[in-house]
């Protein structure tokens, strides 16, 4: 995500930042500071920005609901305390252990950068990498937690399940892209369909601001998107099996 070009770092891309926007904004300030840094105190200042970045992440999630019954509530500036609670609420097992270790080691490294009067460029560079890695990993862990385990094909265990809208039946099917298994998608079939006017308005809308991940979709499972995906799947199936796929688009 970040490249060093003659000691200059690029700002992180907008797209892979669906979570922790304030923390990422502060990370951008650290990058700006790094790009003009020359002396030890400049690199320490990068550390200060990174500390604020991490505290912004903790502040975002300093929610009493995370605190267990018999647990003490961390102070607002207690990055390790709040991050550990966040890690416990969004993950378990190895991922939770990893997140907790990551928060501890990253915070400690940034703190050393802040206080070490012999800090140099490589310390700041490593601290930037470590912090962006932490934000990226936590962001992905939150997304994974929100979405839950992805569904798998009951026939072959593949994750390549997709929805296939068949125009002549006006029905959605769930189709496995790996083995061709399919069944009626009752949930999608029970939803009201968007009108042609709504589809037209959606496809011709002005997109304002940066792309987000996942993209906003006012008609989850709407016909146009499914139609494109279904067409791609049918083409792949035809290539694999040498026969025509059902449906139309
Ligand atoms: Zn399958």
Helix-strand category: mainly alpha
Give the CA-based shape.
Answer: elongated
Helix-strand topology string: EEHHHHHEEEHHH
Q: For the record, give the distance between the C-alpha atoms at the N and C termini, rounded to a whole number.
A: 37 Å
Strand content: 5-15%
Strand order of the largest sheet: 3-4-5
Give the % helix. 40-55%
- Bound ligands, named by name, code or SMILES: zinc ion
Count of DSSP strands: 5
Largest sheet: 3 strands, antiparallel
Helical stretch count? 8
Mean pLDDT: 82
Low-confidence stretches: 213-228, 244-249
Tally of distinct domains: 2
- The radius of gyration is 24 Å
Descriptive account of the structure:
Mean pLDDT is 82; it is low at 213-228 and 244-249. The relative contact order is 0.11. A hairpin with a 5-residue loop joins strand 4 (171-176) and strand 5. This protein folds into 2 domains: 4-147; 161-241, no CATH class. The longest helix is centred in the middle third of the chain and has 27 residues, at 121-147. It has helices spanning 21-35, 40-60, 79-90, 93-115, 121-147, 186-189, 196-203, 223-241; strands at 4-5, 8-9, 161-166, 171-176, 182-184. The protein has 8 helices and 5 strands. It is elongated. The two termini are 37 Å apart. The protein is mostly helical and 249 residues long. It has a 3-stranded antiparallel sheet. A two-stranded antiparallel sheet has the order 1-2. Helix 1 packs antiparallel against helix 5 and helix 2 packs across helix 3 (79-90). Zinc ion (ZN) binds at residues 153, 155-156, 158, 176, 178-179, 181.
């Amino acid at each position: 995500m970040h490249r060093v070009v003659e000691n200059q770092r690029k700002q992180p891309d907008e797209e892979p930042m669906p979570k922790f926007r304030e923390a990422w904004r502060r990370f951008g300030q650290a990058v700006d500071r790094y790009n003009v840094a020359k002396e030890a105190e400049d690199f320490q200042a990068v550390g200060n920005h990174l500390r604020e970045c991490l505290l912004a992440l903790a502040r975002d999630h300093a929610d009493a609901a995370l605190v267990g019954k018999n647990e003490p509530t961390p102070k607002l500036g207690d990055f390790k305390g709040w991050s550990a609670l966040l890690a416990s609420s969004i993950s378990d097992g190895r991922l939770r252990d990893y997140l907790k270790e990551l928060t501890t080691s990253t915070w400690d490294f940034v703190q050393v950068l802040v206080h070490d009067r012999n800090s140099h460029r490589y310390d700041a560079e490593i601290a930037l990498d470590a912090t962006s890695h932490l934000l990226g990993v936590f962001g992905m862990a939150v997304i994974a937690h929100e979405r839950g385990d992805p569904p798998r094909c009951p026939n072959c265990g593949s994750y390549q399940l997709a929805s296939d809208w068949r125009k002549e039946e006006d029905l959605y099917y769930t189709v496995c892209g790996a083995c061709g298994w399919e069944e009626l998608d009752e949930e999608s079939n029970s939803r009201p369909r968007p009108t042609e006017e709504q589809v037209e308005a959606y496809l011709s809308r002005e997109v304002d601001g940066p792309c987000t991940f996942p993209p906003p979709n006012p008609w989850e499972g709407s016909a146009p998107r499914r139609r494109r995906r279904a067409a791609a799947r049918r083409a792949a199936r035809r290539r694999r099996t040498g026969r025509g796929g059902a449906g139309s688009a």
